[in-house]
Amino acid sequence: MPDLKYIDVFFSVQAFQEEDLRGKSAVIIDILRASSSIVTAVNSGAKKIIPVEDMSDAMKIARTMDQNDYLLCGEKDGVKIEGYHLGNSPQEYTEEAVGDKTLIINTTNGTRAIKKAGLANRIYIGSFLNQKSILKALAEHDDEVVLICSGWRGRLALEDTMFAGSLLHKLCKGKLPEKTKDGAKVAFGLFEKFGNDLEESIRQSDHAYRLRNLVPEDDVPFCCQVDKFDVLPGMKDGIITNLNG
Ligand code: 3SL
Fold it and tell me: What average pLDDT does this structure show over 82-106?
């Protein structure tokens, strides 16, 4: 079980240095929508997921593979990238679409956060969809924990912070010890304030507004479902697979 005193929360990709994660367990969070999509893809049987920084890295990897084995996935400004097989709506990641495939994915913030977490001892991809699996994995070790909210271009995102707060709330059974990191206090406090109507609070978030009219209307409610999937996507050597599999 991690010591709650040392759990830290970072609020954007730009807010942490790679070194901050060395030797720790990191949970990477991008509720709208990268981590929710990755969790759904793993649940739908994707063989492996390779997160990359941008399209050029995606193409470099794709060129080394058989065309029938991979799918290019991701978004730019919320929208599927031209020539890609899939965008970044979790609802696209069905068994039919991704079963047994390797996904190469780049998104604006989420996959960057994942790539930047390479020095962590354990790297998990977390979302409300697989909250219970994340809590179970964290409880199994006494590593220091960092919750990485991907945010939006360096800014805090309410939905990511809410999930970090929700994890903290469950880990400390609703009562945050006095001695905790500032980031943990902020995330916990936000969850206490808005967590009783998760979906409505997230609907009112900046990123939900950004996505309005760009993505399927039901993406936000989809990403707000708690414990829908029992998977634990984890990254080793740059590749994400289901550690519960
Ligand atoms: O920022 C990201 O990584 C994406 O998840 C953003 S979007 O919801 O696809 O626009």
Answer: 98
pLDDT value, residue 6: 86
Q: How far is the CA of 213 from the centre of ligand 1 (A)?
A: 14
C-beta of residue 135 within 8 angstroms of C-beta of residue 170? yes
pLDDT score recorded for residue 242 = 98
C-alpha 173 – ligand 1 centre gap (Å): 31
Ligand 1 atom nearest the C-alpha of 30 is 5
pLDDT reported for residue 5: 82
Mean pLDDT in the chain? 96
pLDDT in tens, 128-152: 999 999 999 999 998 999 999 999 9
pLDDT value for 1: 85
- Give the start-to-end residue ranges of the domains of the chain: 4-239
Q: Is 75 in the pocket of ligand 1 (CB under 6 A)?
A: yes
Asked if residue 78 has its Cβ within 6 Å of ligand 1, the reply is yes
CATH of domain 4-239: 3.90.1560.10
